[in-house]
Design a protein that fits this description.
Elements (H helix, E strand, L loop, with lengths): L13 H15 L24 H4 L16 E6 L8 H6 L4 E8 L3 E2 L3 H11 L2 E7 L7 H10 L14 E3 L14 H19 L4 E3 L2 H8 L11 E4 L17 E5 L7 E5 L3 H9 L1
Parallel strand pairs: 1-2, 2-4, 4-5, 5-6, 6-7, 7-8
Antiparallel strand pairs: 1-9, 2-3, 8-9
Helix pairs in contact: 5-6
Length: 278
């Protein structure tokens, strides 16, 4: 306690000190799927699709948008932030697809990935995996391979969506990872090309219009190939990044109602199945 007089060391009990030192050392060592003790509030377990967008952009957390005449399918995205997920509750609430965080950079695997990825599949959902990019830590090819090797693969089973690349504000430093627009675009091109060479699929991209404008100069070259998953917590999807004439998935709230961030697929269920089937 601050200001209190330290107690004398208990006599003849040196093993307590040794045990304490061992415990402190153990807590400081990062294990797969966990943040280090030195960064408990800024490790990969605290990063999910939209976690950094919510810190930088001004849209308030949105309520569910009003029903639309256009066909749509309700979805959710989760990460280790949610822990073990009760998939039956989500299914009963009408959720029919899920994206699950698998990896970050080339050093982190979500410790809850198996429960979330397999659990959503087993309850009947169409599901996919996503990768949280840290472009200044390793190459696009390295991170795409790491993602595919640790849950981000694809199979033509009618229940697996193509992998998604999460591009958003840098949680560890400068907004655009201290990279030029050209360098970031090249990094993404390499990631997408590697992913396609490994899986045969063009990956989805998750990004916000504001970040995209700031960090890529509103590059338009991915819109014809990579489906867009866009966050905007309000009553409409808003402006899209250059190159996309429509969105594929809209992340419309980060506040539930059950667990995770909630999304709407821009089409009927058979079109969601078509995306899964390639």
């Amino acid at each position: 306690m601050l200001g209190s007089k330290p107690s004398p060391r208990p006599p003849h009990r040196p093993f307590i000190v040794a045990g304490t030192l061992i415990a402190l050392l153990a807590s400081a060592i990062a294990t797969p799927g966990t943040a280090t003790a030195a960064t408990p509030h800024n490790g990969p377990d605290q990063h999910w699709a939209g976690s950094e967008i919510a810190k930088h952009e001004t849209d308030p957390p949105g309520e569910a948008p009003p029903p639309s005449l256009a066909a749509s399918v309700e979805g959710v995205d989760v990460s280790s932030h949610q822990g073990n997920v009760n998939w039956s509750t989500l299914w009963n609430s009408g959720v029919r697809f899920a994206y699950v965080k698998a990896t970050e950079s080339n050093s982190y695997i979500s410790p809850y990935f198996a429960q979330q990825y397999n659990g959503s599949y087993n309850i009947g959902m169409i599901r996919g995996a996503y990768h949280f990019a840290v472009p200044n830590s390793s190459s696009g090819a390295t991170q795409a391979n790491y993602f595919v090797d640790h849950g981000g693969g694809w199979s033509r089973d009618g229940k697996t969506l193509p992998g998604a690349l999460d591009m958003e504000y840098n949680p560890y430093g400068q907004t655009c990872y201290s990279m030029s627009a050209g360098a970031l675009i090249s990094w993404m091109q390499q990631w997408f090309a590697t992913y396609k060479s490994r899986t045969g699929r063009d990956a989805v991209i998750y990004t916000s219009t504001s970040w995209w404008k700031t960090c890529t100069g509103n590059y338009s070259g991915f819109g014809a190939i990579n489906p867009l998953w866009i966050p905007r917590y309000g009553s409409s999807v808003g402006e899209l990044p250059a190159g996309w004439g429509f969105h594929t998935i809209w992340q419309y709230t980060s506040t539930g109602p059950t667990v995770g961030d909630h999304n709407r697929f821009n089409g009927a269920y058979d079109r969601l199945q078509a995306l899964a089937n390639g």
